[in-house]
């Protein structure tokens, strides 16, 4: 009985965070791969990542716990979600500077994100670590 309960817990969908950044991606997406190389390693260590943790979905997935404004088609698409409802999205990936700028704007405009408060509680907040050395 305990194993059955544990198995159910592992397969049940996780409830949506209050605020999360949902990345819509697909296999073979070159821009998704580029985001994964340039941003993914640092994102959870940033104030933005602490405030809006990343959740990944394949473009074919249709989760019951997110109400999208429209069906995401382009990959990558980054959807800012609050309590299961889309607030705003970033479609595509045009490099790390553009991504951080756009994310900062939508967090500022659509949430209670306070970068100063987040910096006090988040180590390693320097976005420059996201750019790979050549």
UniProtKB/TrEMBL annotation:
<feature type="signal peptide">
    <location>
        <begin position="1"/>
        <end position="18"/>
    </location>
</feature>
<protein>
    <submittedName>
        <fullName>Regulatory protein SoxS</fullName>
    </submittedName>
</protein>
<keyword id="KW-0732">Signal</keyword>
<dbReference type="InterPro" id="IPR036249">
    <property type="entry name" value="Thioredoxin-like_sf"/>
</dbReference>
């Amino acid at each position: 009985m305990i194993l059955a309960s544990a198995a159910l817990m592992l397969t049940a969908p996780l409830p949506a965070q209050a605020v999360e950044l949902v990345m819509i991606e697909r296999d073979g997406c070159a821009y998704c791969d580029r985001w994964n190389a340039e941003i993914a390693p640092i994102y959870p260590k940033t104030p933005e990542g602490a405030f809006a943790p990343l959740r990944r979905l394949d473009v074919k997935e249709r989760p019951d716990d997110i109400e999208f404004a429209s069906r995401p088609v382009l990959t990558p698409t980054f959807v800012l979600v609050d309590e299961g409802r889309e607030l705003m999205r970033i479609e595509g990936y045009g490099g790390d500077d553009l991504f951080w700028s756009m994310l900062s704007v939508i967090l500022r405009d659509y949430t209670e994100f306070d970068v100063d408060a987040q910096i006090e509680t988040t180590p390693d907040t320097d976005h420059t670590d996201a750019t790979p050395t050549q």
